[in-house]
Design brief:
heterodimer; A: Chemotaxis protein chec; 4 helices; B: alpha/beta; Rossmann fold; five-stranded parallel sheet; 5 helices; 5 strands; globular
């Protein structure tokens, strides 16, 4: 899958997607931050919140990583608005950014795989702290591709990571109709 | 109106409730579950008027939850609220007895469009 999709070709769509997702959860408009444009260092001392998912291609078995990074201050605002509280707890921040990643991942899947059912989306994993590169990305894999959005004086980032392992992520149980027969 | 909302994200469960209120629904009694298995138990205990469920959840997915419900003869109106909505998923949802599928991000209008046959603001 990641061999035949040119991620650069879908950059404008991904930028729109990130803006749409942020608007849906923050109820704020964002601006695309073009490649190569750097902002002055942020005074935000809170650790960033990171959501990581993968999309598994059932056709060739490859996995595309989807990572969303939100600066600490923005993650706080995101959780505060989603939960309707001024002081969200750490679990709230993780839940909020995980759901942000989940919505982004679902829409990335629709964008890259169309509406056919040849791909599966993992459950989101979220952490607070340094943005670490996912493990087990083959050296020959295409480079990750990121888009950024400027919102509420911070920058949110969506990155696609071709040929990511995804083995350490959580996946929903596979639907097997025969196991449903004995449900209570 | 008694509603079961199944989603592994507490934030999303809260957003769904907020959106239902924005859609004009009042007097809601909301019961929350983190996965399909918990939701299945809630439905058996509380007999809700409507079920809104995520698709991708740990333990038991939304479609497994729906199929388990229908296999035991439960016809409670059921709608998916999920971050993805492929044609295959929509077809599977409808074939399994769901009203429809609302894809995230969603609006109060999209809730009204799908749920208008079972709820009245």
């Amino acid at each position: 899958m990641t061999d035949h999709i040119d991620l650069e070709e879908v950059r404008p769509d991904l930028e729109t997607l990130l803006g749409d997702v942020l608007r849906s959860v923050l109820e704020e408009e964002s601006e695309v931050l073009p490649e190569g444009v750097d902002l002055p260092p942020s005074d935000d001392e809170a650790p960033p919140a990171v959501a990581l998912l993968a999309i598994a291609d059932d056709v060739d078995g490859s996995r595309l990583g989807v990572r969303v990074v939100v600066p600490g201050r923005l993650a706080h605002t995101l959780a505060a608005r989603m939960f309707g509280t001024d002081e969200p707890e750490t679990a709230d921040l993780l839940d909020a950014v995980g759901e942000l990643g989940n919505i982004a991942g679902g829409n990335v899947k629709a964008l890259l795989f169309g509406t056919a059912g040849s791909a599966r989306l993992s459950l989101p994993s979220a952490i607070l702290g340094a943005v670490v590169a996912p493990t087990a990305v083959p050296a020959e894999a295409p480079a990750p591709m990121s888009v950024r959005a400027f919102v509420l004086d911070d920058v949110a980032e969506l990155t696609l990571i071709p040929q990511m392992s995804g083995e350490d992520l959580m996946w929903p149980p596979v639907v097997r109709s025969e196991v449903l027969e004995g449900q209570p | 109106m008694k509603i079961v909302i199944a989603d592994d994200s507490r934030a999303m469960r809260m957003i769904v409730v907020r959106t239902l209120r924005q859609a004009g629904l009042s007097g809601l009694e909301v019961l929350e579950a983190e996965n399909g298995r918990e939701a299945l138990e809630l439905v058996a205990q509380h007999r809700p008027d409507l079920i809104l469920s995520d698709w991708n959840m740990p333990e038991m997915t939304g479609i497994q939850f729906l199929q388990a419900l229908r296999s035991r003869g439960d016809t409670t109106p059921f709608c998916f609220v999920t971050s993805e909505g492929s044609d295959e998923m929509r077809e599977q949802a409808t074939a399994s007895g769901a009203l429809g599928l609302i894809a995230k991000p969603f609006t109060a209008e999209s809730f009204n469009d799908v749920l208008s046959t079972v709820v009245t603001p």
